[in-house]
Amino acid sequence: MLTINITKMDAQEKKAVNTSLSAQEQSLVIISALTATGNLALLKAELNKGLDSGLSENEIKEALVQLYAYCGFPRSLNAINTFMTVAKERKENSITDKTGKEIVVENGAKDKYELGRKVLEELTRTAQSKPAPGFGEFAPRIDTFLKEHLFADIFVSDVLNYQQRELITIAALASMPGVEGQLQSHINIGKNTGITDKQLEQLAELIHTNISIMQANTVRKIIGEPLIPATKPDLMVRISEIEILPEYLKDYNTILKEEASASVKLEPGVIAIFPMYQKESPTQIRIIEMYADKATYQSHLKTPHFQHYKTTTLKMVKSLKLIDMESLDKETMLEIFKKFN
Q: What does the CA dihedral 325, 331, 333, 334 come to, rounded to 10 degrees?
């Protein structure tokens, strides 16, 4: 079993000659990032794109199962349930997707710890003592779970190769704050499997587009690429002052809440849409709006959720005043939102 696994690793390394991520690999990166951050609305769209790009159902299932080890059961299960919905809807629409390689639950290894230890040695190209020094000595059960389950049960499955699994892991870790040490380790492992700096740059761009500039910069910093400022020169901040006709207030508030929520969840460039009302005069609405740049704002105006808001609330608005603002300290202003994490 160990010999087969080592041979598979060598074959995977020799196969890794691409300098850019394929459409399927890009989709795996985005699926992993959205699963790690819990953005199920965008994940659903990306799952459809992944299947359209040629990913098999079993490849996606394996990715979502693997992710439980990095972002927890709740996020993994939420993503799997979302994928179940996507698969059902596609079948109902007569779309036939590839099933892919069979997923084997038990690999038949007699000594899973030893198998996992050998897999980790191949991935890291470093001798792995038993138990792992430090955390393995302090908490032996976590060392056992790491070797027997993650690297024996999960990584040994050939539904995904080692390079794909490391792309999945790196994408997830790059999307979550506070795990830079583990991200560094897996970027090193990823390079051992054949992932190139060019592919890591591309991965960072995908994190930038789908998660945030700041999280993408964690990858850029590790691979020695220039960091991109968190704010653009044309960061757009606006305060909307709106007075609502009293008879429409309840309906207006419902529609506004739906629009604000959809904008922040579905549009990466929408930093904030924060509706408020005056305590002594509830018909007086104030909205703080922040967009990464003017292009994001123009794109926002064309979205279905904004168009719905605009057309349905037109008769409800008594007055509207849009006040464009300029920040005194753009970088510090964005730090405010980190505290909500």
A: 110
Res 7 pLDDT > 70: no
Note the maximum CA span of the chain: 75
CA nearest to 175, candidates 2, 292, 43? 43
Conformational region of residue 178, where left means phi above 0, alpha means psi within -120 to 50, and beta covers everything else: left
Is 236-338 the same fold as 2-104+157-222?
A: no
In whole angstroms, give the CA distance from residue 251 to residue 236.
Answer: 28
Q: How many whole angstroms separate alpha carbon 137 and alpha carbon 131?
A: 6
Of 247, 317, 266, which is closest to residue 34 (Cα–Cα)?
A: 266
Measured CA to CA in angstroms, residue 247 lies from 244, 253, 321 at distances of 8, 12, 20
Which among 214, 210, 222, 173 is positioned nearest to 67, based on CA atoms?
Answer: 173
Per-domain residue ranges for the chain?
Answer: 2-104+157-222, 236-338
DSSP bridge pairs for 291: 236, 270
b vs e for 43-68, b when ≥16 Cβ sit within 10 Å of the residue's Cβ? Answer: bbebbbebbeeebbbbbbbbbbbbbb
* Prior bond of 246 cis (ω within 30°): no
Q: What is the pLDDT of residues 262-321, one digit of tens each?
A: 999 899 889 899 999 999 999 999 999 999 889 999 999 999 999 999 999 999 999 999
pTM above 0.70, yes or no: yes
DSSP state of 109: -
pLDDT confidence of residue 18? 58
Instruction: Residue 179: name the closest of 29, 74, 37 by CA.
Output: 37
Classify domain 2-104+157-222 by CATH architecture: Up-down Bundle (1.20)
CATH number belonging to domain 236-338: 3.30.70.100
Residue with tokens 């123009």: 298
Cα–Cα distance for residue pair 38/50, rounded to 1 Å: 17
